[in-house]
Structures
1.
Amino acid sequence: MTDETVTEPLGPVTTLATPIRLDFEFTPGVAQSRFLRGLEQGKFMGQRCPKCGKVYVPSRGSCPTDGVPTTEDVELANVGTVTTYCVVNVPFAGQSIEIPYICAQVLLDGANLSFMGLIQEIPTDEIRMGMRVEAVWVEREELKPSLASVRYFRPSGEPDADYETFKEYL
Amino acid sequence: MPESEALHASHRLEYPYSRSVGPVIGAFLTGLREGRLLGVRGAGGSVIVPPTEYDPTTGGDTGEMVEVGPGGVVESWAWVSHPLPKHPLPSPFAWALIRLDGADTALLHAVDSGGPDQLASGDRVTVRFRPAAERIGAMADIESFVPQGGAPR
């Protein structure tokens, strides 16, 4: 041994780090790029189907029912309705939000498709289907073409939505 | 909307897996950390490198660990002209099957020969470990193999 320093003897190797990594280039396409650019301006942009009239957010550029391009851009409200939700109590590797937290499907006013959002500023046992929520955005200068521009949704204070108004979206 | 208005971004998907290696591969990796190459005695006395828990021909348990190398013979090889970021060497090298002295099977690793015209099947190579302080008990503890007689650099 030529080492001058005295070190603790190392035990036998029992585990091996085997990270799996995939670096890739993502192109969301024209329709979803409009949605993302909308987020950069602090608003939700969807697209309406010219045939059935449904508004999709985020739009993929076509109507999945009618198979036709969606070309009309629609700006949606900053408020919506919780259709369903899940309270996350289980910790997992890489978790970035303190548990317990609420993950909900939010149907924005004017949209015919809900999307997933984080609900905050409410005790987890008070969340309910039909709750009216509003989006809370990051500071103006921090807005980016990313869903990270939406910090979370919080109760808007309005009365709960009637079940009949969102039962189609469960 | 023109095509150029579509966004474009770099993403990374990553999972920080680790796996338990078991007693035999664990001993092999421990050997690497110590700067030693270990094989295992299989059925009929053959020496398997890298070692396995079971003999690949009989399925029976393997036996004692056996030190092999540090020299060996290149059985076959393929030249990598444009190394990728994950490769063991940043400069062009050969992936080679190397049968270490004392072993009956070949180990896959990099050979830093300097060029494809400076390597041939049957050539003798020797292991080049990373410095002891950098070794963690992983295959990358072997930086590469080099033609016997020293590195070409």
Note: The radius of gyration of chain B is 19 Å.
2.
Amino acid sequence: MVVVVVVVGAYFYLQPGKPTELHILNWQGYGTDEAWAVQIFEEKSGVKVIHDNFNSEQEMLTKLRTSPGVYDVVLINSAFTEQAVAEGVLQPIDSTKIANFADLSAELRDSTRFNIDGKLYGVAWVWGVTSFAYNTEALTAAPASIQVLWDPAYVGRIGWRDDAVESVQLAAIATGQDMNNPADIEAVRQKLHALKGQIKTFWSSEDEWNKFMGAKDFDVATYWSGSAARSKKAFSLPVDFVVPEEGAIGWFDGLSIAKDAPNAEAAHQFIDFMVSPEFYVRWDTDVGAPASSNGKANAQLPEDAMNRAVLGDPAVVARLQWMAPMSDEQRAQYQELWDETKAYFAQ
Amino acid sequence: MNADQRRRVAVLGLTAPAYLWLVLTIFLPLSAMLYFSFLTEAPFGGRQPVATLAHYRSILTKDLYLDLTWRSLRMGMDVTIACILLGYPAALALARHVKGRWREAMFLLIVLPFWSNALVRTFSWTMTLRGDGLVDRAIHWVVPGMPSLDILFSYPAVVVGLVHAYLPYMILTCYVSLQAIDESLIEAARVLGAPGRTVFRRIVLPLSLPGLLAGTVLIFVPVIGSFMEPRILGGVAGSAMLGTVIEEQFTRIFNWPFGAALSFTLLAIVLLILGLAAPFLRRTLRTA
């Protein structure tokens, strides 16, 4: 008798139309899986949140391709949204179901990276900047120009990330070019070669950057805006982040809904929660986050929060170059250029 | 079944698992990689690659890959020579002069690096080799006026890390051939009036040559493809190697075909070197 009740109950509880789970695909530790946030959303929606992670954009795309109908919400960097749509792994999002949609920055929200063939495939969530930070004890004034990385005054005192795409893009900005499509690749090569002797060593992770900065190995080092805020706040390092006058690398991430998502209704709700001030302010204050695409959320941050003080300035945002999709050939070409530069450094 | 047949079945039964294992774990993945190296892109996610020789052409014609190959070969030679200079005398001392429990204790110390995680070992060198690190402080404690020693993030640091990792191979292979030398040969030479130098040059060294060569091959081959030590200890000056570039092709830009083509080029170079050295090695071993 008990078995019958349980089985019948389970049948009605689990029948289609009333999904009870929400499957999210994201980097680990990137906001959506904060325990307090999951708890708030689960209480609000009555839906259980289940996370799966990826370690690279390629892995994320592979998971979407090979497991259709499994994931609901997926985080995609805006430079990859177009490819995901072309491969047919995403479904359009109904912006009328996102209550906070009107508060999102128009530049990101209405970007052609998300709006494809008149349909919306990604909701702008967070954004950030890649440029450099400096040690405020070693440099008395904030450097205004990206040329500080090439300044002979800091020979052997520069930290640089060992990454081909980032290196080429920074050199393109320093030579006054479109970083997504540098017309004069030879100028980029020469600019990168000119770093010989400048770099103390390469860094590869936020943790490593903090160790090098803490050990006073760097005076100036390339860095990410969100990480700089954490280094300053959580690690008490004497550093400040700079968006130089020549511009910097801008990137933004969107939240998308997978094709044939089992719970598209809750997926819309979850995305709305993610772009709300309620979630973002606590995320940035307690943990440290990239900048929000929601202007109202940024305005609620403490006045000294970097995401408000530095990145909240429209003049700063206007200087950014946003990362565009890249072809495999372009990637391979940049990698070879960077490998060649590193071999030149080693000579 | 006669005795001969029974022996054949027994040999087959004993060796088949090992061969099956080798086929499954080495031959199949390697063949897949060799196949990938002739494709335009890795055949994942419904992509339609076509056959190409572009990767090999690029490797053989561009100065960059020639330069990287030469740098990796030089690293292999430097590490191997350092291992011989440090390892052979140590093996000689162990085999001929240290006895009993002391020998066991010293063996334990030599094999210890094998038992520690390679990554931990390499990171511990970053603390040792940096300016104001352990070595630097020790030197200044003894000689206060010395200039600061900071070799972290340089080519020498890579060589130090690799020698530490591979030295046990050299000591163990040399030790095995040295302790197998018949004591009476040396006594005979002594009786006939040969000085110690001659005994070493005419008897000990030739007879221990097989161990020395085995150690050389065991060290040289993996070192030229190494990527972890150059990546962590080499910094700007020492990380540009063939191994690190192969690693980047796989982990950074997912260009498996090009990474595979680089790996097989490296394998071809190793086989070529061994092939060229083979006649010489055979002659040396025969006269020994």
Note: Chain B is about 80% helix and 0% strand.
3.
Amino acid sequence: MNMTQVSDKILHQLFRKGEASYAVSDVSKAIAPLVDLLFVSLFIGASGVTVMCYVAPMIILFSIIGMCINTGARNKVSVLLGEGNIDEANAVFSASIIIGAGLSVVSAVAVGVYCSEVSFILGAREPEIFEITKLYIWGYLVGYPFLTMIRILTPFLQMEGQYRLLATTSVITTVLDIALDALVIFVLHGGMFGIALATSVGYIITFFMQAASFVRRNTTSVFRLSMKGVTPKIFGEILRLGAPNGLFNISRSAGGMLINNMLTAFHMRYLVAAYGVFSQIIMFVTSSWMAPVDTCVAFSGVFIGEEDRDSLKEVQKISLIHTLTYTSILTAVLFVFAPQLAGVFLKSDDHEALRMAAECIRVSCLSLPFHTIVYNFSNYLMAVKRLSFSSVYYFLIECGIIVPVMFIMLQIIGYRGAWISRVINMSLLSAVTVAYVYRNGEGATFRDKMLLLPESFGIKPENELAVIAASTGEIHGLPHIAVAFALEHGADMRRARNYGLVTEELAIFLTEHGFNDGKTHNINARLVAKGEELIIRMRDDCKPLNLTEYYKALTESYERDAGLSIIMKMSKDVQYTNTLGTNNLIVSV
Amino acid sequence: MELRKEVNGSSLTIALDGRLDTTTAPQLEAEISGGLSGITDLTIDMAKLVYVSSAGLRVLLKAQKLMNKQGKMTVKNASQEIKEIFEVTGFDELLNIE
């Protein structure tokens, strides 16, 4: 296996870890509201389901705060960490938590105070429904700030490589929600307030579990409760980077309302319900293809900061392959089991309703493979800060194309136009994507253009050398390679020797301290010549090992720490980050 | 790395030629472990040594500790680059450098 293949293998392993974590987390989040709906529909009845439908748009709008900050902060911090700019990354991290907490508390209090007015606007007019709606909102508001902060913390936990914690807390939240729902229904007879409060309690516990990891562990992202970092510049940057995500949610709400109105105006029985079945299915299965997409975005930010063009291309490729695999499998499953799924999601004895729902599923699922291109592209646009087009693109996904297309198709072919418009929407968006990449991407190949980065991005191949080591024995050649590399790039003999020496000591330190757990590990060393600078970038997949903190705690044990002294005193700069479950060192000699 | 030994009664001079790193340090270590019996004066000649890493420093320290019990050890003819490494790591205070 050559170096590129080994490097790709490490990347694939890291990607799968991140992807699995996102998938478990997203699936758990999808299950919780479904479970709530099930408990409510079975044990509270139609009034409870009605209340949930009324409050749903408010929940979607509330989610915008957390999603905007989540996306903006993640994109900003991942690039800063990739560059080795830890202090600024921590300032953004802390600011995002404070801003998210502040905004969500203020909005929760405002809605709580004007709960009657909000309930009325949402559509709860009948006296009994009105009162239950208020109670449900109050129960939801208790947990809302914590849900916002969970949304913000999630990408940071992924960047810290805390995949197990993320998956565990997601599962615990879901299990807790189910248990508390049962307690509320069967023991406390708490009604809709109890159902909402049960969910809120789950969010509160999850938040503290996740937040504790940033206090207990030696994390790269460090929270400082200080308003110093909450500057207009950082606030503006977070919102600017996250705004497209906010627009996505607004477009989704608006598009949904417009489509519902269009279908209602068509005056065909069961049309809205049949169309809604596929929408419900999509909500549940989205996590399957969003897991690789979100993982790709997290990795992309770090690799953009590291100017690692090859890893960026590889991670894009992995994401596209995985997304296409999952969507293709889903398409096949949905197509085959359409009638059964229609029966599960549409409680009806009317054969016509079930037939329409099954037909809707069978036709609409053909749009799923196009989600591969559309969602990989839409999320990646934010990683490369193409925010204007990202906003436009999100609008097109949820509203800009599908609404007019559906309107035209309903006129031309009747009710089936509703399902076919989904397929047309996604295929048109895919075409828009390909056209945009061809027009705006730079590079000789389509893969280079897909990066949507300048051709000058990244380190030129002649200024970079990657070396993989999987054992102490394999690092023996590293210092010789480093010395030769430095000499090739204009260093004098003394500097070249120092460069080789620091490279050797870094590798020895990592193997001695990180390879001793009995598991297989790899060190990925990138020697980089950037202008006058000679840089060593080392990434390893060992346990978290902060070399700079280790050095600060140095005692006079010359035998043990000679290597560390060489690294710290002979380097101009040493930066450590732990991202995506790996230790990353950027050393300038 | 080439290693040349010169024995003169109870004095031993080991001249190092090349690099003293993770690959070659075991070679010197083997020499020290087996070859210091009866030696009261050990000299490490670094005139032709071009590179030393922490692995090499550990072996030198081991040799120094051994010789502290039975005599003395001296490091001589180290280049400026090698001396710099001794200073950075604090080994200039542990080793007897001429």
Note: The longest helix of chain B spans residues 54-70.
4.
Amino acid sequence: MNWRRISLIAVPYLWLAALFLVPFLIVFKISLSDIALSIPPYTPTLDLSEGWSGLRNMISQLDFENFEFLADDDLYWKSYLSSLQIALISTFFCLLVGFPIAYGMANAPQEWQPTLMLLVILPFWTSFLIRVYSLIGLLSNEGMINQFLMWLGLINEPLTILNTNYAVYIGIVYTYCPFMILPIYATLIKLDGSLLEAAEDLGCSRTEAFWRITVPLSKAGIIAGCFLVFIPALGEFVIPSLLGGSDTLMIGKVLFEEFFSNRDWPVASAVAVILLLILIIPIVMYQRNEQRRIEAEQ
Amino acid sequence: MFKVKKSAVLAAAVATAGAGWAQEVRVYNWSDYIDEDLLTKFEEETGFELIYDVFDSNEVLETKMLAGGSGYDVVVPSGTFLQRQIAAGAFQPLDMSKLENAGNLWDVVQARTETYDPGGQYSINYMWGTTGIGVNVGKVTELLGEDAPIGSLDLVFNPENMEKLAECGVHFLDAPAEMIPAALQYIGEDPDSKDEDVLALAEPVLAAVRPYVQKFHSSEYISALANGEICVAFGWSGDILQSRDRADEADNGVEIAYNAPSEGALMWFDQMAIPVDAPNPEGAHAFLDFIMDAENMAAASNYVYYANGNVASQPLLEEDVIGDPAIYPDAETLETLYTTTPYDARAQRFVTRMWTRIKSGT
């Protein structure tokens, strides 16, 4: 009996160890290594044939030099800050766009809801890369948006959207919006309608009822949605590199440059370790929020 | 009994899979860089099954090479990258006894690739070209007058010219190893310098024209130049010539010209080599020998508009390839071309950091 319990608990922990802890330790080890011209391009590597002395030998050669290097150059903290800013603003706009959609879906007639749900999920059937690429066609100077605005006579010259931070915001909001909509929808659909009726009976206006009942009760969904958007947006690489300008500073791009242009795997790993440390705070907060939500539901 | 059978079946399956593996040749080449009829021809002639993948940046290839176990039999790095990967032990020496067509290689090109691969032990030249300036002739002369310096680095590194050109759009390669040597050449410094003090001199040159550069990108300029979206691109010879042909085909009134800058242009070489852990070195050698055949190499050059390192293929080249000085520069221009060698890790970091500063101001 006891063994069964232990093995049940062990499964998620083994999962965590194999898919998170081990990869993290490998990256962390590389971040303490030195760059080398060899395969793989860093030193020292673990020589298993020497057993324990090989391991001791490897550990003695590790140091925190790469982290000191990151602290010395302002490029890195500026990139982290700029990524935080882009992720926060995008999350805000995702909420602004996502909440009304989720609200509309939850209040739509029952028989429409599966179709509406499908429409939100449908874009996932196309590759993420193709969707971002197609935004290039929409946002460019000769793109459909500019053509349309000029045809309407609203503007005389095409707006420069592509290759600016605006395009990055549009790309992130568009791509991650479903991650905001779905958890909010999930909480709104469970909302007890009689609460709103009661509020109205007691003389509460509809807007007031929305702010005092609907929003607080969907808080868990809002928080979950915000984290689901914020966490991947912070390390985003594809969207800023395809839609952003040469001066768009994001940590995902810096990471790519370290890895591919400088071929400096140790510094790239150090950048990744710090990115993970920054993300741990929101991830732990998200975890707690989820736990509380599940407990509340029970 | 059952167990024995199962493992026997497994062993047989592994054996056949192994045999199947040996019949495949996996080639990793640059995108848009071969006449695809050659690929079927290779399969028909040799009986190998060809798996042909493409990439568009040396950095991506190098990361695969240095990680090891790429699974490719033939890869095509550029000279400086090849040199560094040889030093890292990424390639195996060629077995010359399997390369009957090696005599077709052009000594003029071989003398220059000697820097990267002494004695041609590890690689053969596939194609080569220059890095220079592509212009939309009509728009540039309209903005700068009939005597616009379209054949000079002055066009792209003189802020006065660039300020006017910004109106119609300028793209630069997003490749510091191409742009920084050009900037050094412009101010009369050694383009191949690894000295940080010298490299730093390129920064003010590039920073001064940075505000007028619409984008740093290494492939978008092909279509942007062809459809008139931009009027100047600092890019690779063959790409700009492809753009010229696209504009001709579209018949949209856009006339594109390519010039290797008169101050001297960077000459680069794409070399075919065999990774040290290639699963099928036999097939890899067969592929290299096939490519070195004069007729095949001529077909490839006639298709992609790049010069090759195969002297025997020259009589078979079409006139608009061999006769075009933008592809096969005349002896005089050839004299002004320079080559570069790889940056070491320290200089590379310095250059990448400087490039980020130029592009983003940080």
Note: The radius of gyration of chain A is 24 Å.
